Amino acid sequence: MVEWALQNGVFDLNQENVAGLTLTMIAAKHGYDDIVEVLVRHGANVNAVTKTGASALIIATEMGMRCTVELLLMLGAHMNIRTQTFETALIKAIKLGHKSVVKLLLDYGANFGCPQNDNMTALDYAVACKSTDCLDVLSWHIARLTTEFENQMLVTLNKTAKIVSLIFPMQCFALSEGHKFKVVFQHELQPTRVGAGMLLFIAHTQLKPSKVQCRFYGACAVTSVTLNGVILHAVTKVSFIILLN
């Protein structure tokens, strides 16, 4: 019936109701997956947000609608949209203890390392909310990414260097969500030591439920990196390893 109406009439699919919700948001809230798909495929903006910054994905996450969340992700919903209170879908899922939604978002590459307005990351929230199930899922995901990242880093550098400490937590950005990404961090510079330096490693990563693959060389979608307004350069022409100092 919905599809027939869309084919035989003229509608503003992004029109908000008095509560500020679009049709896609309402359908997502109630888990009406067929209607969500029809609306988006007929031009509804899957990434429209309310006045408080909530998207259909965040609303479905809040309701614990795992199937709807996955459908929205398949339809191009952005995982890292933040509400006015800086909550992403991942943070929302962790706070509410929706373990299956947390795992799904992580499998799709949700950014777990980006701090919120209170400087807490997804891992911090999992600990603070005492959500053991979510903490286990998150810890396992971070561990497997970190292991693959460090292993490939060692291979790329021929085991000539190792990571001593992190300037900021690992960040995950989906190329489908835009072409500009920003990480805000504070770091107190230490006296330079011989044989030590700061490098930014950018890995192209493929995430699968059973496997993680990343690389630091080859074709790259990253065109430039700036730090405090200064353009930085890669160590070699074919690598994604940036010299910070």
TrEMBL record:
Keywords noted in UniProt: ANK repeat, Repeat
Alphabetized InterPro entries for the sequence: Ankyrin_rpt, Ankyrin_rpt-contain_sf, Dendritic_Spine_Reg/Scaffold
Superkingdom, taxonomy of origin: Eukaryota
ANK repeat spans: 19-51, 52-84, 85-117
Matching SUPFAM superfamilies: Ankyrin repeat (SSF48403)
Repeat recorded as keyword: yes
Protein name: Uncharacterized protein
Organism: Ridgeia piscesae
